[in-house]
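Dear colleague,

Thank you for sharing your sequence with our group. We've completed the structure prediction you requested, and as agreed, I am returning the results in plain text so they can be pasted directly into your records. Please verify that the sequence below matches your submission; if there's any discrepancy, let me know and we will rerun it promptly.
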Amino acid sequence: MSRFASAVAAIALAAAPISARAQGIDHAEHHEFVMDHFTFESGATVPNVTVVYGTFGHLDAARDNVVLLPSHYMADHHGYEWLIGPGLALDTTKLFLVATELFGNGHSSSPSNTPEPFHGPRFPLATIRDNVEAVHRLLVDSLHITHLKAIIGFSMGAEQAFQWAVSYPNFADKIVATSGTAKCWPHGIVRLEAEIGAIELDSAFHGGDYTTRPTRGVELFASIWAGWLFSQQWWHDELWKTGPGDTTSLETFRANLIRHFLDQADPNDLILQARTWERHDVGQTKGFGGSVEKALASIKVPVLYMPSATDLYFPVSDARYEARFIPHVTLTPIPSLWGHPAGAGASPADKKFLNERIAAFLR
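Please find the predicted structure tokens below.
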């Protein structure tokens, strides 16, 4: 696989394509925060629940130089390295970065790594609010951090950033959301249900209690995923050929992307995080009566809202609607053909655009 195809496949799974060291970034320190027990919104209480996270840079004496980077779909704590390093928006000589990993990614507590009786399909539904609550405990109880300079989130990380702004309106000075909305609107649910169904209909899946990996179901999941990942114009212009390394055929590119899912992801984990994604709605936060508009209107801090102009996962029209209700919002669509991954700096132009706008906003 070419380096470019590998990187795009990694973006598809929201993993970092290039190592931190290769980009001149401070090497991330790997950590685990273990809670004796955690009660999910579903009511299920699970023992020994773990949040995996990485840190970049150093916490200053006043503990006020912290930026939170909540992870996106199936990502680890390296998922924001397009923002970190010399000349980029996040300077680790000045900032302390905490990059957390969502439940269900296979590292933090997940269907694939939790013992009975919460193993596999019995792992409780984890909402975005559950993830925010767990990371709040990590920051306050373990790291003794009670305020953040900013929260920056891409995709499901953006969902978390919006939830932080609603659940803890004074915890961060600023919010940045790229390629993600405060609610998963119905079209997104339809897409995600198709992907989930592709796995569940594989005869090997057995309701999640598989003894043989449901390979065909994961392949179909990944194929649906690929069809929505980039814009129609991206596919028309054959932009998979524009990266460094070998120019590949459409079928080779598609096969490489699918292989990344087969090599990396547990099917029950894929389903759990898809459920987390599709169930998100800040309006369901207590006190807002199911109104996303009221929840957004409660946000006190400045928000830099950066949808991708061609995102099929989180359409720019949904972002424009939500922005109408946020009191202090700067809506800045990313002018890109790269669809959803534009919000993670998928092309050099996207990376430059994001870093310049985010750096200026943080200043």
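Summary note from our side: The two ends are 39 Å apart (CA to CA).

Kind regards,
the structure core
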